[in-house]
Batch of 4 targets.
Target 1
Amino acid sequence: NAGVTQTPKFRVLKTGQSMTLLCAQDMNHEYMYWYRQDPGMGLRLIHYSVGEGTTAKGEVPDGYNVSRLKKQNFLLGLESAAPSQTSVYFCASSYAGSGPFTDTQYFGPGTRLTVL
Amino acid sequence: RKEVEQDPGPFNVPEGATVAFNCTYSNSASQSFFWYRQDCRKEPKLLMSVYSSGNEDGRFTAQLNRASQYISLLIRDSKLSDSATYLCVVNIIDFNKFYFGSGTKLNVKP
């Protein structure tokens, strides 16, 4: 049981390049999330998904796209990378139970992205 | 205005000390509350959920005050291994969104 995994762990891009970050979970969770974490800003939600084939925008969606073609995978794409997208990206998943306290988030180890 | 606000610290305390962190949230529709721990350059991990009646897990006690819209975390008998950043998290369940504070850094010194 690997939990939540992310690939790659590190990446350096040049401005204007594109890339896709992959998140995979083996816990059969319905909900998946992409966050970015910047110094002093905490984690900010980029996009999220409440089930296979569905996605929704979070707080900071501009410049990113996502897809959830399979329940266990959630992909984050950068179409044209900018230096402002230099950050640590975390993926998370949670079980969609009923009521509060069933929605604990489990995080992947993160991807450190630098855009030059 | 941020959804969740925390004192960034750092809180520098000696081993064995008791330390408390507070966190305020702005949305009264927030329905579930958590404290996460994040070690340097690692992913956040759930420390404990916060229940309306308050709850305790070993040396850790969490409290929720809905009227004043804040939650707190108390750590007793601090250990060196408690050194980390503590993130306050609230969830507005209807929107399936989690809001994270920027974290409070704790340094426990020998």
Target 2
Amino acid sequence: SAVISQKPSRDICQRGTSLTIQCQVDSQVTMMFWYRQQPGQSLTLIATANQGSEATYESGFVIDKFPISRPNLTFSTLTVSNLSPEDSSIYLCSVPTPASGTNEQFFGPGTRLTVL
Amino acid sequence: GDSVTQMEGPVTLSEEACLTINCTYTATGYPSLFWYVQYPGEGLQLLLKATKADDKGSNKGFEATYRKETTSFHLEKGSVQVSDSAVYFCALSHTGRRALTFGSGTRLQVQP
């Protein structure tokens, strides 16, 4: 299994500002995923972050709004820029199970963002 | 593209009642199928999984069978407990892509 931590666990931000979320994994992984869970909704994939290359964004998500860094195999950051109340969500990072052929994933505890 | 459809919630049951949460999917090929659970105030956890047709995943008394012919992966439990109250998500992924596609989630409330 993988142990994943996220910082901050929650934050309240003002409109127009930015928040950077950190995701730390206790083992080296090639792929990391960032998801958004809007209030009362399911999880939606934002992007896939691979070490050493640009993140791959899903339809509806753009790099200017959600820049991602992946400086090494155990760490990634997601920035949510130019915040609006619609960005209020839980943001989660996840990693695939090491050496698993089933694509099982471990999730971080999430970052709860509230935008005023 | 891929999609997962779950029954609407909330589902409210009395303790020891039988549970079925329906899940159907649309996908090319042979995806892996999962049920994840989110307990109140906690993170998302894998409950069970199945990787090929007719596989049965099981954990904590919950079961789900990968039905290729009906593209379904229904979650079942014979006798629910108050501690099973949570939101349950059905999900799928492909070997190459690896990211998960989630259903909308089903909230289960078990009353004593």
Target 3
Amino acid sequence: AQTVTQSQPEMSVQEAETVTLSCTYDTSESNYYLFWYKQPPSRQMILVIRQEAYKQQNATENRFSVNFQKAAKSFSLKISDSQLGDTAMYFCAFISNAGGTSYGKLTFGQGTILTVHP
Amino acid sequence: NAGVTQTPKFQVLKTGQSMTLQCAQDMNHEYMSWYRQDPGMGLRLIHYSVGAGITDQGEVPNGYNVSRSTTEDFPLRLLSAAPSQTSVYFCASSPFGDRVKKLFFGSGTQLSVL
């Protein structure tokens, strides 16, 4: 079974600065995907960024980038030029690409509440 | 397209009452699932379905029933609500063969059991 751990329950950052959210995971599989989801106060789950395990290049989406360290099983999210609208709960999540009974089963971390201060 | 629609958005129940959380998607997705979100625990999978007539248990299935009679609908039933079922519930769907493994989430149902 997979586990995902987010060790930072809360983080804060000043507007326009950079912040990094940490995530570690444990799996015996080699083919999987990792995600960061954002949950603002509206409760909607918004996909921020995804990383395929077989790709060495770190994923980037505008101000959001990841540092994927497969050997260390680490998957951190860096938010550059933080904005007030980035204030939200952020979840790290894992999904196997093995198919079969693991299909579609996301395993989530505990979440990190990020507050961006003006 | 509406995407994934959950009803109701909020619900208060008394211990022992039953209710059904509704979930419908209009994207013809084969895969549907239910998660519950609790503070400090992230989201955990309750039940899932890979197509009409096929359901299976997730990580925390006790106290919940599901059925999948159509591709569009995947209701979650609480037969006898307990305070431990106070949570936010999310329904999600995904098409088979989606290489990027993206789940489409509903807006959630906040349930309080007194």
Target 4
Amino acid sequence: EPEVTQTPSHQVTQMGQEVILRCVPISNHLYFYWYRQILGQKVEFLVSFYNNEISEKSEIFDDQFSVERPDGSNFTLKIRSTKLEDSAMYFCASKENGPRAEAFFGQGTRLTVV
Amino acid sequence: QQQVKQSPQSLIVQKGGISIINCAYENTAFDYFPWYQQFPGKGPALLIAIRPDVSEKKEGRFTISFNKSAKQFSLHIMDSQPGDSATYFCAASSGGTSYGKLTFGQGTILTVHP
């Protein structure tokens, strides 16, 4: 069964460092998303990406965040200068076109900022 | 207005019992209401979803009840099993530029005792 894959599964970084979280969405999907989940809290929307551009972003997704689809298969989330409060589980999701299409989530990357 | 409120925060049920989780929303533009199941260390996985043109949808032991006028929807798990122990999130989304973006509830930790 096709699945969304994310790497790495766990990333530890020092405050102020840049991190890149990687995702390979399902191949025929057209919509891509990043969500985050702070430990014990709900899943929060960060950004959606369609047709090679950001279609929507949340208040959380400030200038420190950026997304890219550099090669038509990978979908990356970059955090330029990490803060302690960026520590969370980051989930990539993708879906195909259509109003009834299901969003498939990856296993997540646990980011720990120390 | 974008929030989805979920209750209870945690739920303990005996094997064979009925688990009921409730959600409420304010945004009348929401037109897709999925429920996600999340096991520890995993990404959310779609369990069942409903659109507002029907009041109930059943898939196996899982049923969504939808009350459009009250802006509420609920998940019923019949004959609950220990393997159902997980965190359950309701969510909602709407079309347009927010197409596919999911707004999640706070989550319910379900524990089914054998």
